[in-house]
Automatic annotation (TrEMBL):
Pfam family, one: PadR
Annotated Transcription regulator PadR N-terminal domain residues: 12-95
Assigned keywords, A-Z: Coiled coil
Keyword flag tRNA processing: no
Organism name: Streptomyces huasconensis
Residues in coiled coil: 126-167
Domain of life: Bacteria
Protein name: PadR family transcriptional regulator
Ranges annotated as biased composition (Pro residues): 219-228
Ranges of biased composition (kind: Polar residues): 195-206
Keyword field contains Coiled coil: yes
Annotated region (Disordered), positions in chain: 182-228
């Protein structure tokens, strides 16, 4: 499987986890929600769907009459098929979500992974964000070194293009820094809240066995000794 087809399969599984769709809906969501897929066609999508069905990750169902009437003029007979994620497909997608290898840091794959961060655990999000930042910092260092070596030989327009590229990478690094700090702050806040709840439960437990005094009762006299 090529890297490009692997990203597409990941995105299709992720979208179908939200709700069943037919091919027209899927292509529209891929085009509008995931910018990395703006330039792909049905000729790319349907072989991918066929593979996912063969793997047991999707099933094909007949669409409703209203859906067929709406989508048939655009996609022909294919629009009659609705694709639904199977239990095995959901399990496979969750396994893909948990992966944080080097591919997750590359441009296209990172964009697809980021689109499904809402379904990804916090620890995995942190590893992907930090890996992406590290990859871009390496890229930025190489770009600066290359520019330093070739600056004198470049005309003004080529030099400006390289500067623009560096600025784009620098902006993304700053954006990643903000996301990482936000994730850390959220995790720290969750931990503090959890520890505060545990401390409150502990305090409640300690006071649970203490005798309660009614509002109109006189305060206990220390000379009377312990209450029995």
């Amino acid at each position: 499987m090529s890297r490009r087809s692997g990203i597409l399969e990941f995105a299709v599984l992720g979208l179908l986890r939200e709700s069943p769709m037919h091919g027209y809906e899927l292509r529209k969501r891929l085009n509008t929600s995931l910018g990395v897929f703006r330039a792909f066609s049905y000729g790319t999508l349907y072989p991918c769907l066929k593979t996912l069905v063969a793997n047991g990750w999707l099933i094909e169902e007949a669409g409703s009459a209203s859906e067929d009437a709406l989508a048939a003029p655009l996609t022909g007979r294919r629009a009659k098929i609705v694709y639904r994620l199977t239990a095995e497909g959901k399990e496979h997608f969750e396994e893909l979500l948990s992966q944080t290898g080097p591919d997750a840091y590359e441009d296209e794959h990172f964009a697809a992974r980021f689109a499904f961060f809402g379904q990804t655990s916090r620890d995995v999000r942190m590893r992907v964000l930090e890996g992406r930042r590290s990859r871009l910092e390496e890229r930025l260092e190489k770009m600066r070194a290359s520019l330093a070596r070739t600056r004198e030989r470049l005309d003004d327009y080529t030099l400006e293009l390289q500067r623009h590229g560096m600025e784009s990478v620098e902006r993304e690094v700053r954006w990643l820094n903000e996301l990482i700090e936000s994730e850390r702050a959220g995790r720290d806040q969750h931990r503090s809240s959890r520890e505060g709840s545990a401390q409150q439960d502990s305090t409640s437990g300690e006071s649970a066995d203490l005798p309660r005094r009614r509002e109109n009762d006189p305060p206990p006299d220390p000379s009377d000794g312990p209450t029995k």
